[in-house]
Amino acid sequence: MARINQNYDKLAAGYLFPEIARRTNAFLESNPGAQVLRLGIGDTTEPIVSSVLDGLKEGVDALGSSESYSGYGPSEGISPLRDGLAKLYSERGLSLDPSEFFVSDGAKSDSANIQGIFSDDCVVAVQDPAYPVYVDSNVIAGRTGLASETGYDGLVYMPCTEENGFFPDLPTQKVDLIYICSPNNPTGAVATKKQLKKFVDYANEHKAVIFFDSAYAAFITDPDLPHSIYEVEGAENCAIEFNSFSKTAGFTGVRLAWTIVPKACQTEDSEAGKLHALWTRRQNTFFNGASNVVQAGGVAALSSGGRRQTDEQVAFYLENARIINEGLDALGITTYGGGNAPYVWLKTPGGLSSWDFFDKLLNQCHVVGTPGSGFGPAGEGFFRLSAFGHRENVEQAVSSIKEKLQL
Ligand code: PL4
What we know:
By secondary structure, the protein is of the alpha/beta class. Helices cover 36% and strands 14% of the residues.
């Protein structure tokens, strides 16, 4: 008799982003003709830059001749791409072997799947608020109890608040798996080396493993802030890192990312190399590699021309964030993030709940954002605006908020 994975029934509500789409569509149905300005989902809008587009085209053309045709590739990714990624990190003084880079179709799937190579009874700690994938993947895997107002039973929440600058204190109890995202989604805060060092030391001392999501590292402009957790001494022994081409190369629909599992990284019951071997085995079994066409685009994105053009695009989105921040500041709304991240995190005016502010912003200004409570209990009373819009849409949204939001 087949039975379902009952852990799915523990999931608190619909996944955040489809819920936003559902409410937006309901608004449009009752307000036909209204133009909605979308600063909700962190999805790129600018066209792919020419050098990357050329790489993608070369990838397509290679399939058209028997000399250059390729079928299934290695599930870990093609060598030129893994080599290019290792070189990217070497520019920051990091010595990682290309074989420690696992190319994939997304940081979302990797950050959801990584928990599968760890024991079911690991205690999980997450920043609160956090990208929902970290929590939901562990709920589905059965590492939590039921959800309540304060979150899932059995999960260790590390609150990120105004008081601690949106970077958490160390957990007071022993935890085994720790999710850290920097630059942070949703708060836009970037962890300093000193802040990360505390977690790296904790993980090495307690034989815990850190999952470091650096999907927005390219948005860091402050030269003192780390782009990778491996810039912190000892991190290669305890940290796995995710990154993505989604937000730098405009690949949210194209799909390409990478995960670093250093051979030195280990758990209390395994020797160095075992986690690397397990992730290799996991990917070999479940994944047939990222598209060869897309990987050709990734190689082009890492070329000097590709990086120059994608850096310009990142700067464009950061300017959007600055425009959003400036507009909200003028209204006296407290904002965070935006300087080194594509997200502006604002405190809801008048102490409104995150979803009440969502409705107010949609109804009064026709602007869609993301309610902070959707990222965890500590996100309540906050709201996220994405800077990934076309400039005219961002400007229109800011003007609409300035003119129509009734504070
Ligand atoms: C909406 C911290 C966005 N449907 O594109 P990927 O899979 O390489 O990367 C996804 C990802 C990974 N890590 C972090 C992220 O913030 C994201 C993308 N987040 C957002 O608005 O928060 C897109 C979300 C998408 C989803 O469910 O991921």
